[in-house]
Every structure is written in structure tokens, then in C-alpha cells.
Fold this protein.
Amino acid sequence: MQIPVEGFMYPNEVELQWSVLIVLYPFITGLVAGAFILASLERVFRVRAVKPTYRLALLTALAFLLVAPLPLQLHLGHPERSFEMYLTPHRSSAMAMFGFVYLWYLMAVLLLEIWLDYRRDIVLKAQSTSGLTRVVYRALTLGSSNISDRSLSIDDRVGYVITLIGIPSAFLLHGYVGFIFGSVKANPWWSSPLMPIVFIFSAMVSGIAAVMLLYMASTKLRGKEIDIRCVDVIAQYLFYTFVIDFSLEMVDLLQRIYEADESFRSLDFMVHTRLWTSQVIIQILLGTVTPIVMLGLTQVVKMSEAARKRIYAIAGSLTVVGIFAMRWNVVIGGQLFSKSFLGYTTYKMGFATREGLLTAIVLMLLPFAILWVLVKLLPPWPDATSHASGTAPAHGTT
Amino acid sequence: MEITRRRLLVLLPAAAVAWKYIQAGTPEASPNYKLSEHWWGMLIDIPKCIGCGSCVRACSAENDVPDGYFRTWIERYHVPDWAIECPEVESPNGGKDGFPPNQSTGKNFFVPKLCNHCADSPCTQVCPVGATFVSPDGVVLVDKNYCLGCRYCVQACPYGCRFINPKTNTAEKCTLCYHRITKGLTTACAEVCPTGARQLADLKNPSDPIHEFLKTHSVQVLKPHMATGAKVFYNGMDGSVR
């Protein structure tokens, strides 16, 4: 397949090395980190209004985290060797720690916190169901069926500590992904000390927006009333985080424009041509400025509940699209120009190939399928526990 | 010996390990070669390069480089007087078939490129499993039996010297013909260069002519601001070269 080239590329640069699957990787881990941070608002920072989304946020984070390594595995030339990263990690590599950071976050933070939070419900379900369902719930108890007040109180305290550890871990997870790109000194589009920080804030933005949308959609699907106070608060946090994220990106941009180093002319040309639609139109105008203005309006103008809900839905959707575009522009944009700064290549995405569009779509749908299973297994709705057991919700003491 | 189920369970993994070694083959021995006595690099004398492409062809044949990928290549620069920061560069098929006649007037020259075998190489720094490494004699190598094919090293190389071999799905690059230089031979590219524009250099060998050359000429490395400790030295390199 002939790849169109403009100007001069080093001969080995013409073919892009990292495909749309590597775009999904920071996008998905960002959603994980952001969803967890939203959950921690209720648990650690005691923002009670967002409580209806607490469990949904945790399950969303888990569903996406389980899918996060898949695009990487599919991308590797030798996926069967990926375990070597655990056995013989090369300590100077920014990438080598991914497996450990991932496992830490999955095993020590998310799974543990979800299990502790749901333990009471799981035990009650194991006692009240029968057949295969009972076997599943009994397995999920991990042999611990003590749900005395004292035991639940310990669960709660341990869960609190895990969330405390989880916040820096979420920052670590996504800041680390930012560092993988930001530390490549050969690539001026990526190389920036701000990259990990921008990644952390954009992760928070995408995760908060995604959970807000999921909460609104799932509540509607269940025929329940959306807790407007809850989405008001989430939208408020989304707005503040987004303003910080956008400011950081603008600081980075201004610095680059003012410094105008040797790479500037080449990168500037790329933004005005190959990245114009995905960066300027989709990421900045549609995916950042529009939702910030919309969310900002809800903060200063009195609006009806229905209008606010509509704005949150539109702004949230645009935000998620904008953050995806940001990941695209970082990963793909960083490979479209030559390191000689004299030319540009083109990204040709296959369709039904290992790293093609179809694979990317399936990988993006997979977390939703997992989330559906998780929600069936561990209902996150505030009213679910009382329905199941006839008692008050387990998570009521924080 | 009777093969019981238990014995089979023991024998199978052992056979798998043995088969892996057989497949890997026996490395060629270089009994007189001492790693600690060498520190390899290369000298490129730009004014001597005529862009014939012999080096690219020799490299390709010697190392079975797949079509469309390059362990070494040649660039032709045309630098207009009014725009020294924006040279016109071309490298059709990596210069493998030579270059079409030059129509443009002004400053024109050829620049052969290859892995710079950096002492502080960014590509080895980023490899998540250490499959690529700097050998004790200063050559950056890739263990294709260990490489994951994650392509991080390709991204990290500032000079565009690495690629993923579509046959092995692993990272590949110039080895400075390691299989030759450890036997006292020079690299394939230097061997065939009709003008001596490429010369293998052993920086630890006091009698290597490189020392005299470095003393008496102004040489540069590519992208010195990258601080990679590049060991491919260019004589007569124009400031416009990227």
C-alpha cells in the first residue's frame, strides 16, 4: 500500500508505528482514572450529592480497566512475549512499569475497593439466591460471610484507606501514560514536562463526563428520575476540571508558539493542514470550548431542570469526543511529521485488520458489555440493595 | 525406557526448551575477539560520497533487509542560498538505486545515514524488556528472540534508523555488521564504498586512523542537541543536515 508523503521523510518513518489502538490506550485508562476520581469525591471528600454515581463510577472504572491492556496486546508484534515485562522489566524504560502500575491499580485498588463496598450485598445475595447464581455469589464472598456491624465497619474503614491510596494511584496510572509520551525527547510534539499533568486532568475530565452520561442514560433506561442535584454537582466539577485542563493545554501551546524552536514551523504547518479538523475543529472548538461555554452558562444563568439535563448530556458527549480527539492528535499527530522537520506522512487506517477500525470499535464496545454484566451482578443503583435484601444500603456510613 | 504419563509431563517441557535452543542456532565463534578492546563507530566523509547506492545495496544483501526498509540509506541535499534552514532533501528508495541526474544548481551533496550507535542511546533506554542494548564494544543491538515488537524504540530514535521487520515483527536496525567486525572484517557498506566515504572506526584501538582524522578535521555528529553520544562522525557536514 502506497502511503502518500509530502516533502521529505526519513525512509523508515513513512509507515506509522502506533495505530488507532494506541489512541484507545490513553483514552481508556483516562476514563478509568477519571471515573475513580469521581468516586473518590463521595468517599474521601464527602461530596454527598454525587453518591448516586459512586458505585457506578467504580464499576465503570473496572469495566474499562479490564479492557485497557487489550489494545496494547493486539498491537504488539509478539503478544506472547508481553509477560517478559513482568519477568525482566528494563528499569530505565518508561513503558516497563505499565504492567506493575496496571496490576497495582486493578488488584490493590479497584477490585479491593469494589469487593469491600459490595461485600455485604454479595453475602446477602449468596444467602437469598439459589442455583448457579448462588454459586457465583458464594465465590465472590471469597469465603468471608461475616456481615456483623463490627465487620462492616472494618470494611468501611479499610475501603476509605484504599480510596485514599487510590487517588494518587489514579494520578499515577494516567500521569504515567502521559510520561510514556512526554519523555520521548526525539519527538517535539510529545516531549513536554506538562504532558503527564495534562493527561491527568484530561483523564479526570473524560472520566467525570463519561460517568455523568452513563448515570443519566442508565437512570433514564431504568425509568427512574435523574437526581438533578447530583448531576448539577458533577457538571460543576466537570466544568472546573475542564477549565484547568484547557488552561494547561493553552499554556503548553503558548510556550511552543512563543519559543518557536526548530520544530515549530513543521508542527504549525501540520496543525493547519493534517490536524486542522481533528485538532482545531473537533478537539478545541467542538470538544473543549463548546462544552466549557455550555457548562459555564449553567453556572451563571438560571435554567430549568430539563434545560440543564439537556445541556449536561450534550456537553458531556462533546467532552468525551473532544478528549478522544485529543488522544488521537497526540498519538497519531506525533507520527505524521518527519523528525527531519521536512515532511509529512499519512495515517492509513485499515478496517477489518488487527489494528483496524473494526477492532477499535469492538474494543470500545467491550467495556460497555463488561459494565452491563457487572451491573447485573453487582447492581450499583442506590435503590438496588434495599430491593434485594429488604434492608438499607450497605454503603451508608461514610 | 517406558514412557509413563508422569515421565511425559517432565520430558515435554524439557524437550520444548531444547527445541527453542536448537531453533536459535549456535552463534558463530570469534575466539580471538575481545569485547573490552573495542569501541566501534563510523566515519562518514560527506565530500567523498557520490550517491551511487552501493552501500545500501550491500547492506540489504548482507543483512537480508526487507524491501522498503533501510538499515542504511543515502539522502541528497539541495540547499538554496536563500533558505539554508529549509533544504530540499530526497532519498528515492533510500538511494538504493542511485539518484536521478541533478537538475538544480547551488549546493548539492549526499549524506549517508545509518544507526549512530549512540553511547547514551534513547532507543535502548526505552525498551521495556531490555531486548535492545549497547554491547560492551559499543554497538547497539536488538535481540529479535526477545523483542516484544512494541515499537517504542522506533519512536525514541531521533534519527529514524529503526523499523519493524515485517517478517519477524521485531525491531531491526544497523548492527554495524557485528557478525563481520567481530571477525576482523569491515562493514558491508564500508567494504563496497568506491570512494572510501564510509570507514569503520575502532575508537579503542590506538592505531586506528580515526584518531588522526579526528585530530585534524572538524567533524560533527547528527543532532548533537539530542545528547545521545552518537558515534557516527561526519566530516564536512553542512549545517542544514537533519
